[in-house]
Design brief:
This protein is 78% helix and 0% strand. The protein has one domain: MFS general substrate transporter like domains (Growth Hormone, Chain: A, Up-down Bundle). Helix 7 crosses helix 14, helix 11 crosses helix 12 and helix 12 packs across helix 13. It is mainly alpha-helical. It is built from 16 helices and no strands.
Length: 434
């Protein structure tokens, strides 16, 4: 058995896994219930469309900035005190932020609500660290895929529910989101066991853990993480281009309206769920983690090229749909597998730290992607974001090919589940190495 992952930690894992399923689905559904009505809530306090766009962008930018700053520290808190307290605090923070947003009254109240939301955005990193705690290394990539599929289900259900609730009252989705967050916190208080053994907790939190740039620096200098994190960022940016720009491309290139775009979003969500929830379990034992990641990158590259062709040469709906589906399928396979590989590259006491690093990196890419996509699309060419995305994917594939990766097959082949001391045991119970 891998050091740091004993049989005692497997005891009760089924109950923990059930709770993880429930909490992850509720978390992602709660995060997205409010999405359809956010601009309309803000519209109550502004005078025109230009001001609306400015404030919606500012509110989301503040939320992303706070998450970027807070996520590494919250992840480290979970390594010090356990996953459960961070999940509880983050859920209560989300509930408070949504109540404030629903009550409103002024733009500064909405701004405060988004600050609280971002500053307490530690639930998903802690949930993913929880998954790493209760799952053997050789099964992590597959279970990260299952968790990604559950997130996809929550993301599909949330906006649909929000749209239906908004027909009753515009503020209702906001308060339902608050109620879901409060439910998550309550379930965590009474039903969620702690997953991180005391022997695997760090003794103290360093002052440098408050600085996300210092955390990034320590993460990127580690040879077992450097290439993986570079690949993570290179995958996140082109997918961010797609998420933030594809509806504009659909309108400009093939004349689609909201209904057609919404249906495609639903199909993309279904593909993502099928790939992460079902197909990964078939592919990983046969191709290994590296093979699945590279294949996923290849699918994303093909999808981005297809979208670039639609934008520049052949404005055909079938090619647009094919490109979007290939991109979504590849992203689902590569991202979940990469999450599992990174989890195996750090110690049992670093899972929360790693979750904070990736959450903060995601927030950074999520801030950069829409701005860069808009500048390239409007200022260079409609195909530019997708052409750049395809080029970044090629770099990501080369990076993954050179990265240090221990495949699940190697884990299973070792009698103790940790070949050559690589995997969870590769990083002893200590603070992140400088």
């Amino acid at each position: 058995m891998t050091p740091g992952f004993s049989h005692s930690r497997l005891a009760g894992a089924d109950r923990r896994w059930v709770m993880l399923i429930v909490l992850t689905t509720l978390t992602t559904a709660g995060m997205t219930v409010v999405l359809p009505v956010l601009p309309f809530v803000v519209l109550r306090y502004v005078s025109g469309e230009g001001e609306l766009a400015l404030w919606v962008g500012a509110l989301e930018a503040v939320n992303g900035l706070c998450a970027f700053i807070a996520a590494p520290f919250l992840g480290r808190l979970s390594d010090r005190f356990g996953r459960r307290p961070v999940i509880i605090v983050a859920s209560f923070g989300a509930a408070l932020s949504m109540v404030l947003f629903g009550v409103g009254g002024a733009l500064w109240v909405l701004l405060l609500a988004r600050v609280i939301q971002g500053a307490t955005a530690g639930d998903l990193p802690a949930l993913f660290a929880y998954l790493a705690d209760i799952t053997p290394p050789e099964k992590r990539a597959q279970r990260f895929g299952l968790l990604g599929a559950l997130s996809g289900i929550g993301t599909m259900v949330g906006p649909a529910l929000g749209g239906l609730l908004a027909a009753i009252d515009l503020a209702l989705p906001v308060f339902v989101t608050a109620g879901i967050s409060f439910l998550i916190a309550t379930l965590s208080v009474f039903l969620l066991p702690e997953s991180l053994d005391r022997k695997n907790r760090i003794p103290a939190i360093a002052v440098s853990d408050l600085n996300p740039f210092a955390v990034f620096r320590r993460a990127f200098v580690r040879p077992e993480l450097r290439a993986l994190l570079i690949a993570f960022a290179l995958l996140a940016l082109p997918f961010g281009f797609f998420v933030n720009n594809f509806s504009v491309l659909a309108l400009d290139s093939i004349g689609w309206g909201p209904t057609a775009i919404g249906l495609l979003i639903a199909v993309v969500g279904v593909i993502d769920i099928l790939v992460q929830g079902i197909l990964l379990g078939y592919l990983l034992p046969r191709m290994g983690e590296r093979g699945v990641i590279v294949a996923g990158i290849a699918a994303q590259t093909a999808g981005l090229i297809a979208l670039a062709v639609v934008a520049a040469l052949v404005a055909q709906p079938w090619l647009f749909v094919l490109g979007a589906l290939a991109l979504a399928a590849g992203q689902g396979a590569a991202q979940a597998t990469l999450d599992g590989v990174m989890s195996n590259a750090v110690g049992a006491d670093e899972q929360g730290w790693l979750g904070g690093v990736t959450q903060s990196l995601t927030a950074a890419m999520g801030t950069i992607a829409p701005i860069l996509a808009g500048v390239l699309y409007a200022g260079v060419a409609h195909a530019a974001p997708y052409a750049l995305g395809a080029a970044l994917m090629v770099i990501a594939a080369v990076t993954v090919r050179r990265a240090r990766i221990v495949d699940a097959a190697a884990h299973r082949a070792s009698p103790d589940g940790d070949p050559a001391g690589v995997g969870v045991a590769a990083a002893p119970a200590s603070a992140p190495r400088a």
